[in-house]
Amino acid sequence: MDVHFRYSKKNSYSFAVLSPLLPDAGFSDIPLKGIMIYSFTTRQAEKIFMEVKNAGTDSIFIAGGPHPSGVPEETLEYFDYVVLGEGEETLPELVKVLQEGKDPEKVKGIAYRDSGTGKVVITPKRPYVNLDTYPCFNPEKLRAPIEISRGCPWGCRYCQTPRLFGKEIRHRSIDSILRNARYYNDLRFIASNAFAYGSDGVHPRFDKVEKLLSALHEIPDKKIFFGTFPSEVRPEFVTNESAELVRKYCANDSLSLGAQSGSDRILREIRRGHTVEDSILAVECCIEHEIVPAVDFIFGLPTETEEDQEKSLELVRWICGKGGTVRAHYLTPLPGTPYSSATPAEVSARVRSELGKLALGGKLTGYWEKYRKI
Residue 89 sits in a domain of what CATH number? Predict the structure, then answer.
């Protein structure tokens, strides 16, 4: 039975990690006969569901990724199986079982519908993986930035990361990172907080960050981009010490910061774990070290008032005035999070207008209204 990943640019990072574990699997942009593997987020879900519903192929459809893991029951209205959370161990085992015609009930970490009762079966949870056991990508087929850490100890109410990958942060060893680094000239990394490398995610271990960066810096002809897309850093981890590490070892002249709100009330409400003052100090530290702060904000958080939005707008203006840039986001309630059923707050007309002016001036990107399908 042939196996294919349903590839798109938006799931390339996931499939880069999984493709080495199924080396005979192909890539396709349409459903094909055999076993079809999908990975997708909430924004892509409706389109994917319709594709599978109308596929007309003799296929076994497997779904994984953030949206299916958060709402397996909904996903199983269209798919045959859902891989819950991490897929490195679960997916190859499930594919092998299906190819051999065996019963999947003993595969840990999946959901499916019982053929007799039609009820959703969720098998026992699988332990989280050791990152060093698995490659970051398949260099012959599909590459991705190097994942250096996985998991997050913070419980932000809008975020799926700790729900999918656990609250205990895991790190890839320096030796493993160096092995993966040989495939790139420009080194970019995946982590929920790059400056948390080597730590528990709450208390920085900049000595371990420096050990990693210095080891990478010794490789000839490599440019290191650390703490920038597709990673970010938490504001309270931006200090003179961490900024100096960027200046000493890295090629990037910007840092991606997650401020999320200019209201301390909202930061407490979303359990962000830092304050507005932390964000201000992080921006000032960046400017002092000639690093451009690229700061993320979320608008439309459920209990956000117009006063809270005005405070965020004030902070956004201050950051732009300091020479930073801002990326605005409008809340998408994600399955499996405390905000999964929440109704996003409306952004006031005045705040929308002012954000639009900043965008026209080239200081702000993103969106600050309900996401519209294109």
Answer: 3.40.50
